[in-house]
Amino acid sequence: xxxxxxxxxxxxxxxxxGPFRAVDGVSLRVNAGEVLAIVGESGSGKSVSMLAxxxxxxxxxxVTADKLQxxxxxxxxxxxxxxxxxVGKDMAMIFQEPIASLNPCFTxxxxxxxxxxxxxxxxxxxxxxxxxxxxxxxxxxxxxxxxGHFPHQMSGGQCQRVxxxxxxxxxxxxxxxxxxxxxxxxxxxxxxxxxxxxxxxERGMGLIIITHNMGVVAETADRVIVQYxxxxxxxADVLSLFESPKSAYTRALLSALPDNATGDRLPTIADLLSDxxxxxxxxx
Length: 284
Fold this sequence. Notes:
Order of helices and strands: EEEHEEEHEHHHHHEHEHEEHHHH
């Protein structure tokens, strides 16, 4: 059975000019132990789709779906209190920009222990011991000392490791990593990806990686979903996607990679395709 099943997800926001559909009929699934990559340009609805699944969009967003189910349970039919028991515990998310995601007013130790206090009901000594264990697991040196540091006292890579530790604190069944290597230098990006893949394999989690980086997709994913303007354009296993992409949009994305450039200037999607060409043959 799939961990997360989404069918015909639609997300709309009210704007001054009327409703704006950020996600338009997206369907997906991810199983335990599987890595699914969701790839596309900025604004393609990747993050909004997963925030909707997590129930983390503002109340002004209108979310509908034929099915929105986690581990056999209907997420749309849950009360807010029921959903809070799952989010952060069984479903966890690593957000973009780790320094912005951490509260600057509290130590990183307090922030990870707060998760354990809410979801695991651990006492103070047990929370500290577990926090030290988690910091060690994600490769933070001198974890006992680091617990007392504030986010601004740590590097971007260390803050990302803190975010991963917080997300893993309650041994989630499904982890969603939203652009986990954004704003990190290349060496740290590699370390973070290797860490995520090692932890995913050790724990048998389902893992969804949201990215615009096709190199990340090639390194990590079992299956790939390509999105554009809120719609799913293509879905395939990772080898098939790179060797024989079926949609014109996916082919255009791959042709825009620096390694495939034939001139001084990289081609853009707008240069290559119209929206009509992109949406032709799009899957649900």
